[in-house]
């Protein structure tokens, strides 16, 4: 049985791509479907494909999907402070691995992080930074994220958004997901490259392609339960605003 946490993780990630055309409709609601391919850094875990239902709300101050939420607390000119809750990007369902040693491990459950997010919309792009703590109690650690994106409107209906980012994980987080009895992981920093291509078919219908590649910190890739030094996520989605 496939881990339902994967669906939660990707609904959260897709929000950044599915809401870029939200201002084109009077309604803050959108529904859709997506097809996703996800790789794993853990030994013996193959790439997996998933079909996902998508529900999003993009209001004046509140933005949410089923598994993530942002609420704007304060805004002045181009600077915005928000309360944010989101799912982490790390998890392991041990039974998914073909490696007998990995299958003997306990599952590394996906965490829910909550904290503050600061966004700055400048003439040269959008800068985001967030400081979040694991409120689910799985890792009992913190993450700090920085991201830069530059939306490019290729045509009236076609938008391209490249972005780069980094995620700092405290030792508690990194060790929970990638440590073993004989291997402790300290603070780590992952790098990511994201690309979103969104096409507005009509005023209500939008198709979005999303690609995310994460380069893992060396301390993570050197873990005895890890065989890949990077992970990739790709998704194609269709959403309808009403």
The CATH architecture comes to: Beta Barrel
What profile does the largest beta sheet have?
12 strands, antiparallel, barrel
Cα-atom radius of gyration: 18 Å
Helices and strands, in order, run as HEEEEEHEEEEEHEEHE
**What is the count of DSSP helices, taking H or I runs of 4+ residues?**
4
Uncertain residue ranges: 1-24
Overall structural class, as computed from helix and strand content, comes to: mainly beta
How many strands? 13
Family: Belongs to the MipA/OmpV family.
Signal peptide: 1-24
InterPro entries: MipA
Keywords: Cell outer membrane, Membrane, Signal
What tags apply to this protein structure?
single chain, 12% helix, signal, Porin, mainly beta, membrane, MipA, cell outer membrane
Can you describe what's shown?
The chain has one domain: Porin, CATH 2.40.160. 12% of the residues lie in helices and 50% in strands. The chain has four helices and 13 strands. It has helices at 5-18, 100-103, 171-178, 218-221; strands at residues 29-38, 48-58, 62-65, 68-76, 79-87, 112-122, 125-134, 142-149, 152-153, 158-169, 188-200, 205-215, 230-241. Strand 11 (188-200) and strand 12 (205-215) form a beta hairpin. The protein is globular, with a radius of gyration of 18 Å. The two termini are 34 Å apart. Keywords: Cell outer membrane, Membrane, Signal.
């Amino acid at each position: 049985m496939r881990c339902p946490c994967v669906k939660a993780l990707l609904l959260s990630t897709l929000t950044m791509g599915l809401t870029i055309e939200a201002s084109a409709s009077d309604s803050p609601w959108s529904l859709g479907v997506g097809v996703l391919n996800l790789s794993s850094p853990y030994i013996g875990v193959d790439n997996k494909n998933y079909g996902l239902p998508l529900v999003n709300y993009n209001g004046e101050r509140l933005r949410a999907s089923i598994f993530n939420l942002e609420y704007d607390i304060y805004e002045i000119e181009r600077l915005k402070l928000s309360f944010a809750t989101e799912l982490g990007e790390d998890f392991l369902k041990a039974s998914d691995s073909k490696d007998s040693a990995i299958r003997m491990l306990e599952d590394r459950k996906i965490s829910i992080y909550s904290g503050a997010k600061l966004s700055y919309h400048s003439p040269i792009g959008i800068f985001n930074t967030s400081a979040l703590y694991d409120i689910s109690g799985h890792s009992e650690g913190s993450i700090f994220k920085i991201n830069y994106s530059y939306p490019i409107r290729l045509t009236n209906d076609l938008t391209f958004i490249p972005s780069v980012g980094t995620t700092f994980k405290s030792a508690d987080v990194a060790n929970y997901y990638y440590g073993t009895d004989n291997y402790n992981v300290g603070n780590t920093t992952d790098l990511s490259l994201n690309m979103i291509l969104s096409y507005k078919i009509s005023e209500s219908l939008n198709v979005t392609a999303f690609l995310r590649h994460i380069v893992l910190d060396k301390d993570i890739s050197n873990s005895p339960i890890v065989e890949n030094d990077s992970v990739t996520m790709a998704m194609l989605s269709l959403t309808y605003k009403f």
